Amino acid sequence: MNKIILESERLLLRPLSFDDLINIEKGTINLIKVHINQNAIFDFTKSAISKKIKKMEKVPKDIHEWYTYWLIVDKNTKSGIGFIGFKGTPDEGGHVEVGYSISCAYRKQGLMTEALSLLSNWASKNPDLKGITACKVLKTNTGSNRVLKNCNFKLASSSEEFNYYLLDIH
Q1: Residue 102 lies in a domain
Q2: How do residues 135-170 score in pLDDT, each as one tens digit?
Q3: 23 within some domain
Q4: Looking at the 3D structure of the chain, how many domains does it have?
Q5: Which of its termini does the chain have fewer beta carbons within 10 Å around, N or C?
Q6: 135, containing H or E segment
Q7: Which residue from 158, 30, 152, 144 is spatially nearest to 166, judged by alpha carbons?
Q8: Residues sharing a CB contact under 8 Å with residue 123, sequence separation 6 or more, in sequence order
Q9: What is the CATH number for 94?
Q10: Cα(91)–Cα(7) distance, rounded to whole angstroms?
Q11: Residues contacting residue 3 through CB under 8 Å, at least 6 positions apart
């Protein structure tokens, strides 16, 4: 995988390698070059990492950035505070779904908005990308709904329980 690092005022985004994901899954995060705040790894994050590992085993390494989690690194502490990533390359319609999480201690500071903006800008350079989706966002998750709106995602539809968002790229 390329040594891509995305940078904003307060954050670095670094795509995790296949081996990094394995280490998170096994609980051996001390083997990863960047310190990861243990509070950033939720049960659902571990579950998503297991799914990402299975997908990454089946795709060429040169597109792993589209399948892996990107570690959100706080530039001040030089510590991993969250994860963000896509669920693969753009589909036939040119859309890709994004997912993310951040340590509770780093919420309500605009950091996830910063991270999502960074990753969306990186992804927008792919000529096949027409839009980024955020599916099954719980209506009760006010933080995530706010992040998506702050990043110019539009509410595409909703159900009784979930909101579905879209960011048009081209």
Answers
A1: yes
A2: 999 999 999 999 999 999 999 999 999 999 999 997
A3: yes
A4: 1
A5: C
A6: strand 131-138
A7: 152
A8: 86, 96, 129, 132, 169
A9: 3.40.630.30
A10: 27
A11: none
